[in-house]
Amino acid sequence: MNLRRDVFQALADPTRRAILLLLATQSMSAGAIASNFDTARPTVSKHLQILAECELLKQEQSGRELHYHINAQKMKEVADFIEPFRQMWDNRFNKLEAIMKQYKVD
Prior knowledge:
By secondary structure, the protein is an alpha+beta fold. 60% of the residues lie in helices and 13% in strands.
C-alpha cells in the first residue's frame, strides 16, 4: 500500500531534516547516508522512502546503487508556502524591537 505522505510531517522528523541537510550539496547512496547516523540501515531506508514519497528527494539509478538527491522544485514549493509566515514574524519582531528601543534605559 503506497500512502501519500504529508510533506510537513516528513519535515517534522529531525533525522529526515538531517538527511536533507546531507543531500543539500551532493547526491548520495543509501549506504553513504546511513553511515552518517547511529541507527540501523533499514531505519534510514524508511526515512528515505518517506522523503521520496513526499517528493522532497529524487532517486536516480547509478549502476547497482540508488542515489538520492534533493528535489529543488518541491523544496521551493515548501519555502514559498512558509515565506509569508516568515515575513509576518519578521515584521512583528521588528515592531517589538522598535518598541523596546523606545523604552531602553541608559
